[in-house]
Design goal:
45% helix; six-stranded parallel beta sheet; 18 helices; Rossmann fold; alpha/beta
Length: 383
């Protein structure tokens, strides 16, 4: 039995970790797993994971005219429609690759992979939904937003779907008109043992220079969804003495660096880029802060609580499910800056003692989640 996981890129984010963990657990249970990516890989790949990168450039053309047309089309028609129209060569390569590998089941883990696959053969597949689509596909105005949702609805129509949280499932049912019996909730695998093991590795030089349990940390891609601008403004208003470390990279890095200077907090804010192993940094932090507008299942909150680090999070989709049954989580309204500021001050002033939650660990146990995926794969094998 062979399964393939298709993802747009591997960059160390939560989806990447989820796919890695799933591949490893299925392989341990006798299911051959492989990952296909549509963009070159620039992060380390765990041992034992087979990976294929599609070679067709597709939309990665650096031609200036193409880039201008792409931006205009994205603004007027939506990014997904333009991608669907221009990605036929990459879809053809994907189909050839799948047929050559004798694949039994395909799992599609990002929205671009779902669009690519809509032009491909009828191999059994599952659409894995990792984020709240109504917000992830939102454009600058209503028309491209609506077109994005229509293209996505068409791509996933009549195919079985998996959501990583109830919040994602409810959003897809309501906004993409998906029937309840066509979507199942299976959370991401959280390997608590591996997280604790890796947390004991060498700290980054910066973390060594900061006093343990006396700095704030945030981890994630530096993009609009994560709202690091909100974090910087709240941190500046809180006026705490603890430094803030932000681990992650993305297109907004320079803008955030300029904002830190404007807010006069640049001397206390450290944007350190992507970190392959953020767990020592998280374990030594006083509190981890997540200020996103939306999430699917924010695994970084679960990881921090497993390492007995307190968390502050905006009440976006998936947060309450992620921290259910755990101590040490402060949830604040998304658009209430005062509550976020107060939460930062309170967590910096008090001594946070987190008792390990067995319920939290059980909710995302690798054995439990892997068995549910195994049943899905076995169902296809039995047909």
């Amino acid at each position: 039995m062979k399964v393939v996981h298709i993802i747009n890129r591997i960059d160390g984010n939560g989806v990447t970790k989820a796919v890695f963990n799933l591949c490893q657990e299925l392989s341990l249970r006798g299911i051959e797993s492989e990952i296909i990516v549509s963009k070159p890989v620039d992060v380390p790949i765990p041992d034992g994971i087979s990976l294929t990168c599609l070679t067709t450039k597709g939309l990665l053309n650096s031609n200036k005219k193409t880039n201008v047309v792409r931006r205009m089309a994205k603004y007027s028609l939506g990014g997904l429609l333009f991608y669907k129209l221009k990605a036929k060569r990459k879809s053809a390569e994907l189909e050839q690759t799948l047929l050559s590998k004798n694949v039994d089941v395909v799992f599609l883990h990002c929205h671009y992979s779902k669009i690519l696959y809509s032009n491909v053969s009828k191999l059994p597949c599952y659409m894995v939904l990792h984020n709240k689509k109504s917000l992830q596909l939102k454009a600058k105005w209503w028309l491209p937003s609506k077109i994005n949702m229509m293209v996505m609805a068409n791509a996933i129509k009549n195919k079985p779907k998996l959501a990583v949280s109830k919040s994602v499932k409810n959003d897809v049912r309501r906004r993409l008109k998906v029937a309840d019996n066509m979507i199942e909730v299976i959370p991401n695998i959280i390997d608590a043992e591996d997280i604790r093991l890796r947390a004991g590795e060498q700290l980054l030089p910066l973390a060594l220079s900061l006093q343990p349990k006396n700095y704030l940390v945030a981890v994630g891609r530096l993009d609009k969804q994560k709202r690091f601008d909100r974090l910087l403004k709240a941190y500046a208003e809180a006026g705490v003495s603890q430094h803030l470390v932000i681990a992650g990279d993305g297109r907004l890095r320079q803008r955030l660096e300029r904002l830190a200077v404007t807010l006069d907090i640049a001397h206390k804010v450290h944007l350190i880029g992507h970190v392959n192993n953020p767990y020592p940094l998280i374990q030594q932090a006083k509190v981890l802060v997540l200020t996103s507008d939306y999430e699917g299942l924010p695994t970084v909150l679960i990881e921090a609580l497993l390492l007995k680090t307190a968390v502050i999070a905006t009440a976006c989709s998936g947060v309450r499910e992620a921290v259910k049954g755990a101590e040490g989580a402060t949830i604040v309204p998304i658009r209430n800056m005062k509550c976020l500021v107060d939460a930062i001050r309170a967590n910096c002033e008090q001594k946070n003692v987190i008792v390990q939650s067995q319920a939290l660990e059980k909710n995302f146990a690798k054995e439990q989640v892997a068995e549910r995926y195994l049943r899905l794969v076995s169902n296809f094998e039995a047909r």
